[in-house]
Amino acid sequence: MLGKVYSGALSGVDGVLVCVEADAGNGLPQFDMIGMLEKSVTEARERVRTALKNTGYLLPAGRYTINLSPADLKKHGNAFDISIAVAVLIATGDVVQEKTDGVFMLGELSLDGKIRPVDGVLPLVMMAAEMGFKSVIVPHENGNEASIASGIDVYPFTDLREVIDFLDNRNARAPLKNDAGKVLEEAKHKSGYDMADINGQILAKRATTVAAAGRHNILYIGPPGSGKTMLAKRFPSILPDLTLDEALEITKLHSICGLLPRDKALICERPFRNPHHTTSMQALVGGGRIPKPGEVTLAHKGILFLDELPEFNKQTLEVLRQPLEDREVVLSRVQASYHFPADCQLVAAMNPCSCGYYPDRSRCHCSPADVARYLGRISRPLLDRIDLCVEVARIGYDDLERKETNESSADIRSKVIKAVEIQRERYKKENIMYNSQLTPGLIRKYCKLGDTEKKLLKDAFDRLNLSARAYHRMIKVSRTIADLEGSERITEDHICEAIGYRTFDREVWR
Length: 510
Known about the structure:
Structural class: alpha/beta
Largest sheet: 5 strands, parallel
Strand content: 15-25%
Number of helices: 22
CATH topology of the largest domain: Rossmann fold
Shape: elongated
Low-confidence stretches: none
Radius of gyration: 28 Å
Strand order of the largest sheet: 11-14-17-10-18
Number of strands: 18
CATH architecture of the largest domain: 3-Layer(aba) Sandwich
C-alpha cells in the first residue's frame, strides 16, 4: 500500500515543497530511504521506527521504501520525521489517506514520540499557504512563529499520538491564530539606548541623522573613548518602525538560522548585528557545506556594525564589496546558486592609528609609515562604498558635565521619518525607497544641480581626487540633507555639508 503526505525543505531562504511517499510491501524486513538525502534525514528511519513503536504502532514485518521528491533537491535537516511517520502509517493502513488531504507537516520526533522544534518553520509555512494547503502541523514550540503566516490554519502538537488523533477528527481542535499586523502594532518603538545620553559630538550626531534619513553607510573615526560605539548602538533608535513585510522578511531569516526565540511570534525591531573582528568570511556573508545566511543577511533591513574596522581580516572585509553594492549575497555551488538578501546599512567605527590618537601628535607616537600601514588595511574600493565618514573628536570635561538636555532619539527620529516619507513619495514609481538606492540615471533625474553647485562639486572632485562612485554618493548625501530641510532643490550649503563628510579623502588621512 502507498502513503503520501507533504512537507517542505529549505533551499537558501526559500521553501520548496517535498512529497513524502511510503510504500509497504512484502519481502525481507528493510527500511530504505531515497531522494538525495543528507545524513540528518536518513537518520530519521531509526527515530521514526522507534517513535512509532513507543506510540503503540508496531510495524508489520516487510520492506518499507520511503521516497522524498523531487529527487534532484538535496534534503537536509530534521523537519521530515512527522511526515515520514504519517506516510508509513498510511501505507500500513493505520491512517486513512484522505484524512491528510490539504495538510502540510513539519517536525522532528524523539524516540518516545514527542515532537521537537525545528528551524525554518515560518518560510516553509508561508510557502505551504501559497501552494494552497489548508492546514499545517508543527511542533508546539514553533506554533507562535507559524501562526504569523496568513491563509493557513496552524495546529501545534507535542507528540505523535495527538497528530494521529487530529487527523481522525480535525474538528476536535481549534487552530492557533496570531494577527501579525496587530503584533507589530503593539510592539512600540522601544530601545534601551537614547541619543540624549551622548553629550557633545554635534557633528557626529548630525552625520548620524543624515545617514539614518537616507540609509547611507557611515564610518566613525576617532580616538578611543570618544563615543563611536555609543553612537552606533543608538543608531537603531532613530530609524523608522518596520513595516509588516519587513518584519516578516527579518523573522523568516532568523527562523532559518534558529535565532528566533520560541516565545516570540515576530521580530518587531530592526536587527543590530555586531560581529567580532575575528569573524570569518563565511560567518560574515554566509556559506558552509549547506549554505546558511551570514551576518550581512541577518542584518537585513537593519544595521551591520563593524567595530574596530581595520582589525578585521582584509580579505574578510573585501567580500562585503558586492553585498553592499547589490544588496544581496550570491553563493554559487555545483548543484545550485543561493541568493540571500543583504539590504543592510553598514555602520563602522575605527581608531585613526594603532595607538588611537593620530593626528594629535602630543599623544600619538606612531610614525607616518605606521599610520599609513594601519589605514591601508581598509581598501579604497571598500571606502568608496561608505557614503559618510565623520571624525568623532575627543570629549572634553566640560561636555561631560554639561547639564543641558540633549536632543532625544524620539526627536531625531521624527526628523528622519519626515525625510523618509519625502523619499518614498518621490520614488514611488521607481521601485526604490531611499536616496542611497539612486542609480546614476535616477541621480540625473532627481538631483538636478545649478551651475554654482556643479562648479563646487567639480572643485571637490578634483581636489579630493574622488572616484566616480564617491562622486555619486556625495550627490546622494546632498539629496538627503536637502530632504531633511524640506528643500526640493539641492543648494551649495547641502553640497558643502556632504563634502564635509568625506573625512577619509582629506590630505591628513592619506
